[in-house]
Amino acid sequence: MTTEKLAPPTPVTLGEAFKYWLKLGFISFGGPAGQIAMMHQELVEKRRWISEHRYLHALNYCMLLPGPEAIQLAIYIAWLMHGVRGAVVAGVLFFLPSFVLLSTLAGIYLAFGDVPLVQGIFYGIKPAVVAVVLFAGWRIGSRALKNEVLWTLAALAFVGIFFFKIDFPWIVLAAGILGAIGGKFWPAKFKGGGGHGASNKEYGPALIDDDTPTPAHAKFSWGKLALKLVAFVGVWLAAMFAISGSQTLTDMGEFFSKAAFLTIGGAYAVLPYVYQGGVEHYTWLTGPQMMDGLALGETTPGPLIMVVTWVGYLGGVAKGVFSNPIAAGVAGAAAATFFTFLPSFLFILAGGPLVEATRDEIKFTAPLTGITAAVVGVILNLAVFFAWHTFWPQGTAATPFAGTFDWFPVVIAIASFVALWKYKVDIMKVIGVCALVGLAYAFFKPMLA
Q1: b (16+ CB within 10 A) / e for 155-192
Q2: What is the pLDDT of residues 130-172, one digit of tens each?
Q3: Angstrom distance (rounded) from CA 98 to CA 304
Q4: What are the sequence ranges of the domains in the chain?
Q5: pLDDT, tens digit, for every residue of 144-153?
Q6: CA distance 391 to 404
Q7: DSSP string, 328-393
Q8: Helices (H) and strands (E) in the chain, counts
Q9: Is residue 395 packed enough to be buried (19+ CB in 10 Å), middle (13-18) or exposed (0-12)?
């Protein structure tokens, strides 16, 4: 049976969506590229909750925003389907498992120091993450790069960020400008998604299809926009008042609110800012502790910016927010996480209606198509970055190939990519097997030495 003959999916209740968003929170490994690939595979290809074109249009908008684009994409899709309730459910469940896990690991880290069991698991997961990110770039690129112009934009983005170290926001800006110019003079080259109806032919009709009208709750109005802005300010002020009894928590609220508006280009763009504030200015944790948290953030579910949970937990304990270290750590972690993610809900709930209103106008969509092409190049750069740190673990920026080349992660990465690409193995299964392989290798390696 061809996909054209598939019936539209049955309507999805908020309860059914809740189960999926909860599952995603537990399996969202691989950073933003891996998470975006997971959602595409599940929501566009398998469940058909949203069409390819609507998915990419939402993704393009999220790529422009400060903050973690993967969680914003989840909030956007859930908001389209179930309004504000759906957005809150998807957003909270996306980071909640990671919050609990990182807070628990931070407590173990402070209490017991090194955890060889966890290190062994991470040894296997890191090369799997390399494969997941590379596979995500291939999947998104194969759909988004429909002509030589978009391929050129992707290549230029990779060259710019890899060889010339151009900051991601400038790449986004340049790609958007080139997309706007291209949309005016060569509109056929900047029609996103390969033309109307392509997603239907590939996967079948979706609940939110290319021609599905924008739901009433997602229509733009100035009155709704004003109410949402007032509500956001009110929630922020109420949260700041709730923690006003602790100077450390107040500092965290202010600092991570600022950080949330500076994360244009993803977590790596804001990590230097978080490092400078958390380590050097507020002394919530040490440099080595920050690096350990980053390693955990890379290999646990949820967006990489969840490293702020780690920073908040260690800062709460270091500054003695409460006499009980666990209570102090959880309070710090909660403050850091809440104020980091709150603006993401504002960006989607307030800006989403305007994005939906411009969906079919090429003067708005062409810049986003250009940005999507550039992001493919940036994802490839991220895969190279992860591969370098995984295969040359002692390498530094000054001496990138210092130390011993670790061949075993290369084997794991290649096997993982083949499993994902050729055999279509589920991403979570690949990560699970790699974790077990890494654990076994770390256990037997001393015996073989």
Answers
A1: bbbbebbeeeeeebeebbbbbbebbbebbeeeeebbbb
A2: 887 788 788 778 878 889 999 999 999 999 988 988 876 688 7
A3: 10
A4: 12-200+217-393+404-444
A5: 888 999 999 9
A6: 9
A7: HHHHHHHHHHHHHHHHHHHHHHHHHHHHHHTTT-HHHHHHHHHHHHHHHHHHHHHHHHHHHHHHST
A8: 17, 0
A9: middle
